[in-house]
Structure formats: C-alpha cells, structure tokens
Amino acid sequence: RMEARKEIIYREMERVVQCSLVWQKILAPVKGVGPRIAAGLIGIIGDIRRFPSWRALVRYAGYGVEVVNGEARMQRLRRGQWAGFNVDLQQTTWLLTQQILKQNSEPWKTLYLKNKEKHLASGCPKNHAHRKALRYVGKCFLRWLWREWTALYAD
Predict the structure, then answer these.
(1) pLDDT band at 65 (very low <50, low <70, confident <90, very high)
(2) Alpha-carbon distances of 7 from 17, 57, 89, 106, rounded to whole Å
(3) Cα separation of 45 and 60, whole Å?
(4) Which pLDDT value is given to residue 101?
(5) In 3D, which of 92, 89, 103 has the Cα closest to residue 30?
(6) Where is 54: in which H helix or E strand?
(7) CB-count burial class (<10 Å; 0-12, 13-18, 19+) for 78
(8) CA atoms within 13 A on the CB side of 23
(9) How far, CA to CA in Å, does 133 sit from each of 3, 120, 126, 155?
(10) Which helix (H) or strand (E) holds 15?
C-alpha cells in the first residue's frame, strides 16, 4: 500500500518536472538523468539564484572541502554534529553520478576515467579511487549545472 502511494507521488513529480525549463533545456539532454533524479535536484535546490557561486552549491550538496585539524578533507557526516550540508542533495547527486556513468554519458565518463586513473597511479586502492572519481564527477556536474541553470535565468 505504501509502495503504491510512493509510485503515485513519483509519477506526479515526473509530470511536474517535465514542465520545467531546467528539465527541458538542461537535464533532459543528459544521458542517464531521468525525471525522478531531475525532480530531486530541482526540488531540493529550488531557486539556483540563492547560490552566489557554483562553489556554494557544491558545499550545500556536501561535495565541498572542509578543514579538519589543519587538513583539507571532504565534507561528511559526523556523529553528534550538524551536517552543514543537505544530505538529500548529496544522496541525489551520488545517484545521478552513478546513473550517468552507467549510461556512458559524455563528458562525465571521460572525467571519471581520467580521475580514477590519476588516483590509481598515485597508489590509491581501487575502491577508493573509484569513489574519489565518482565524487569528482559529482562535483563537476554540480558546477556545470549551476552555470547552465544561472545562464538560463540570465537569458
């Protein structure tokens, strides 16, 4: 019964997102980005103009860098602390990254392969290199999305 309700909500989200200019002009042409992932991005981000730069969007999505004990590290959840980023957007971006790579979507696949190779060459374990490369592609996608979306409002 709950699954049926979820499916109804998903269908309604898909219907609404397909009327959006962001979907039509930016996200729909990207191989691997479907209406559900697009609805998640558009719904969570809301008005892109509230982010003064692409870096602000990347930080909001949990793909930024934070300094811990004088060392730069990726943002992450820590027990007992406020996240400082939108966990739902982080998860949606992670899912999106996996989907566009499964679809061999360019230029994202090439970015992934180059970044993974760089980490492997530096001695990083295969699993870590994979995750670091996925994270890099997610960050690049958010930067690209911010630029495209703000340009859409500029026209």
Answers:
(1) confident
(2) 15, 29, 21, 30
(3) 9
(4) 94
(5) 103
(6) helix 54-60
(7) exposed
(8) 19
(9) 34, 10, 11, 33
(10) helix 2-17
